[in-house]
Amino acid sequence: MPDEIKKDVEGLIEYLNKDYLKRGARDSKEGAYISSFTFKDSSIVLKIESGNKIRIDEATLRVKNVFASNLGPKYRIGIRGIMLYNPTIILDNRISVSLKIPLIRNIVNNESYTVIELIDLDENDLKKPIFLRLLRLIEDKEQRIKWGGKSEHWILIKRSDRKITKIFTEDPNNILENIGWIKRMSIGQWLYTPPFTHMLNALKKLFIDEILKPLGFEEAVFPKMYPLEVGLKTGHLKGVINSMIFASLPKSFDISEFEEFIDYMYVMNEASSEELQKYIRAPTYFLCFAQCEPFYWFFVK
């Protein structure tokens, strides 16, 4: 690398350390800092330390932008790519949750702090807020342990007088099954017989007529199966994935493609799930007990 470029790089690093890597941080210690740098063939090797306001991924991209905008036009050169080698996150506390993510190489818990060692990351990884998401994941999992479930929680503000003197402790599902009003079809799936259906419809009509209509609500019909990206945006995939049913589309809509499987079912009189997997794609839709996901999809679209 020519000495002239090296001299300009040194000047840019001085600017980065004094100004650009500190922007957005109230205290200079909260920003980022290039503690050392070397030149190796046509590469520039930097050691970057960051605070809690300017993350290492953001600092690295800032460095690239400064180099590209200043060295590129002057010397007619470009930056082929950037790599973050052996990135390390140091937390000021000891975490108690487990993290099973491919990008984590190792976790070392000490008395009062935690060291998280990551795999090498390229520019595409840095453009995703991986570090921010990882820190939020740790915080969310810590909150789940603290509150005994999802990080969301409720606090009782006020309670009315108790209306029922005798508390009902029996399982209503068992009672309804015993009298033949419902029948379990599968996990979370029930068949409602006419008496129970009639009662539910009466309650539904009462709720609609007395509450929803006076409030100005109007009826709409939404799909029950949603794309995975909807659950990712709403947070349900990250919070209640263990309570969902997933659906897959067929690899082909041509019935002739299923001839071998149809013949198998005809002869063996069984529907083998292992055999069926050969004809379907990976799951792309899900069914959740929650009812709010379609609203997100509707307004985003």
From TrEMBL:
Pfam (any one): tRNA_bind_4
Domain Serine-tRNA ligase type 2 tRNA-binding: 4-143
Name of the protein in question: Serine-tRNA ligase type 2 tRNA-binding domain-containing protein
SUPFAM superfamilies, per database record: Class II aaRS and biotin synthetases (SSF55681)
Upper taxonomic lineage: Archaea, Thermoproteota, Thermoprotei, Desulfurococcales, Desulfurococcaceae
